[in-house]
Amino acid sequence: MKQLIVIDMQKDFIDGALGNAGAKHAIPYVAEAIKNAERPVVFTRDTHFENYVETLEGKKLPVPHCIEGTPGHEIVPELLNATTTTPIIIDKITFGYTGWKEIFGLADDIDEFVIMGTVNPICPIANAILLRAAYPNKKITVDYAGCGFMADGNGDETFCRDATKYVLTMQQIDVINWENVMLDINTVKLSELPELKEAFNSDARNQKFSDLENQWNTNKNNELVDEDEIASYVDSNQSYWEDYFYGESYWVNPSYEDKDPSTIHSQLGCRYVGDENHYITIFYDKATNEVVCWSMDID
Hints:
It is built from eleven helices and eleven strands. The protein is an alpha/beta fold. The chain has a six-stranded parallel beta sheet with strand order 3-2-1-4-5-6. The termini are far apart. The relative contact order is 0.11.
């Protein structure tokens, strides 16, 4: 059986003192994993006290957060409400928790530990490594789709994602969904959309791609807001992504591949670029602004 461990998904790490957009974005994914958990879910809570600024962490990171008894210390309710059995909640006073064997014992009935949470490369990675020390022969997996990551001054998570993956891999800890970068419809560039540029596989098409990219960068407000108009681009009755598009090429975000497109049709927004002869349509989740898929058609 799999044991899900959710690290520090607390209000202060979502939209509080040390809020993280990636962690906030991951909430629906983590909630779905919690609903389907095979065993009681374990939550950790980063826990500090009124003397935080006097501690070593407080001196190196002088941002009071997750103070016991404050709203920021609480686990986000969307995750607690997703539990189907009574969860185990662990308060830890530093990055990693050292008492995993007190919780799981020999873990004879656990085949795999699955870790999600925030923020890497701090607490999730610390606990993954401590679990590896406690259980050297158990499969341990960190699911990037359910994690938040630190970013540089430009909002780029690449370094932290890559560094975290490297360290985990060296500890013989599996990393899944590491290639899934959160693509925000409001900031994404066409060249950042996976597999899109490769779909323009000739010199003539490369020029078309450049033209479309220039149009996209100039005006990102090409919005299809009418449901009938969106339906003219996609068949909302299809339940398989490969039958969903009229375009000759498409890509689906791995986070959405297992979802029935006909059931999420109403939550999609759509932006497009091009004209009636060659165009790209980009569908996104209106609740999170995440790019869900793109479809391309070129005469």
